[in-house]
Design a protein that fits this description.
Blueprint: H1 4-14, H2 18-26, E1 48-51, E2 62-65, E3 74-75, E4 88-94, H3 103-113, E5 114-125, H4 142-149, E6 154-162, H5 164-177, H6 183-197, H7 204-207, E7 219-225
Parallel strand pairs: 1-2, 1-4, 2-3, 4-5
Antiparallel strand pairs: 5-7, 6-7
Helix pairs in contact: 5-6
Length: about 240
């Protein structure tokens, strides 16, 4: 896979030149809010793993990504993690599984490196536009994530991170951008539409409390527990 598009994307987001800084300054707020009821307090351990955190520093985690971008500790394919089994207390896999060729292999690796008594946190898009990093293969429902987790891990929490209003706003912005073949015009439309529509994102404060939020949910999540074993002991990272 070609790393250049990903590297260029990161460069555009972090470049110190004045045009990039102006673009970041004018960037509208995200057309979504995160569900405040999504659990975030499962315990960290001595060793924790973050999959797909390229371009950012993730404190408290070993950060792995397909490409050696700033903030990445180990560049590797998540389908074959270069770590010993049962060493991480917590594994974060946020908006990654839609980009991998074999998500079942990634899930098997997460289960392998997760320590008994440890937690894995999966977040994936459901109703969300096509986005390459560097490829985009699929979407997931909560039931799809639970099926992918398999019998080795126990679901302890599930829900929607971003709701139906986020879906409508994001698709509206992307739809309008389709009418403009020029990159500069699309950037202008993205900014104008983003600033115009973002106040509506707060409607999801209500929608995320509804059991019907998943009919048009934007991103879903599950938390998984690997049952503790009396005979297992943690091992250091290789």
């Amino acid at each position: 896979m070609d790393a250049n598009p990903v590297a260029r994307l990161h460069s555009d987001r972090t470049s110190p030149n004045w045009t990039s800084r102006l673009r970041r300054l004018l960037e509208p707020p995200a057309p979504l809010i995160r569900n405040p009821r999504e659990p975030r307090d499962y315990p960290l351990g001595r060793w924790n793993l973050y999959i797909g955190g390229g371009g950012s520093r993730v404190d408290g985690y070993v950060n792995v990504d397909l490409f050696l971008l700033p903030g990445v500790d180990v560049a590797t394919d998540a389908e074959q993690l270069p770590f010993r089994s049962e060493i991480f207390q917590r594994v974060e896999c946020d908006a990654v599984l839609e980009h991998v060729v074999r998500p079942d292999r990634v899930m098997a690796e997460i289960a392998r490196v997760l320590a008994p008594g440890g937690y894995a946190h999966l977040v994936t898009p459901f109703c969300h536009p096509f986005h390459e990093y560097p490829r985009d293969y699929r979407r997931f429902t909560i039931d799809g994530l639970k099926q992918l987790a398999g019998p080795e891990l126990t679901v302890v929490a599930e829900g929607w991170r971003t709701g139906p209003t986020a879906t409508v706003l994001i698709f509206t912005i992307e739809y309008v951008k389709l009418w403009f073949p020029w990159k500069a015009w699309r950037a202008l439309v993205h900014g104008l539409m983003g600033w115009l529509l973002f106040p509506f994102r707060y409607l999801d404060v209500l929608f995320l409390r509804s059991p019907n939020a998943g009919r048009l949910g934007n991103h879903c999540y599950i938390w998984l527990l690997k049952p503790a074993s009396e005979t297992s002991t943690s091992k250091p990272v290789s």
